[in-house]
Amino acid sequence: MEKVTGGTGEEQLAASRILAVTEEELKRIILDLHDGPVQQLFAAQAQMGSLQSRLNHGEAIPNDDYQLTFERVSRLLEASLAEIRQFLGTFRPPDFASQSLVEMLHGLFMHHELTTGVVIDFRVSGSQTVPRLPLPSKITLYRICQEALSNAYRHAKAQRQQVSLHISSGQIFLTVEDDGIGFEPPPLRGPQATEREEHIGLRGMRDRVDLIGGTFELNSQPGQGTRIEVKVPIHE
What we know:
By secondary structure, the chain is an alpha+beta fold. The protein has two domains: 165 residues, Heat Shock Protein 90 (2-Layer Sandwich); 56 residues. The chain contains five helices and six strands. Strands 1-5-6-4-3-2 form a six-stranded mixed β-sheet, covered by helices on one side. β5 and β6 form a beta hairpin. α2 packs antiparallel against α3. The chain is elongated.
């Protein structure tokens, strides 16, 4: 279990770290595009190029070879488009200023379900209505949900994802959990805090919560899924 609690000094530290994390995120997006959709498009191009080369050499190509090539190219294009749609969802955020947190999350979950096929169980409890939140708090909770759901699908191979909001005693509690493969959480605080590239998403969630004076807790074990809990104050 890794628990992170924000404070005044920690908020200042997070503010300086978030710039470096943002730069790393951009690098990761570029690498993900290169290693995902771009490679799939190259593979589709290679399949069509091989077929064209055979035609140019006057080879008689059986219909089965045509069908097999077209099926492979179609699968590669479909996979590439699915990944591109996911990236577009990341770059096309909701209207944070005008929408409520629940409205924003519903939009995020619809997009996630459409592009991954994984259904999200979303529950709201506590107060009858979710109170208005400061803009930084809404953005933080939205981005944490986005990162956690993406990680669960892409890395943890989760088949079930659950998100809950609970409002109580002037605080809002966000929980995101999955039934994925789980992992051993790295340290996120202190001299041993991770700086490894593959942990950039976890560091980003930690820093976002620090900036608004909240707490961030990560629970995971190999084979036991992952649970993320965030608590932020409500300043109306």
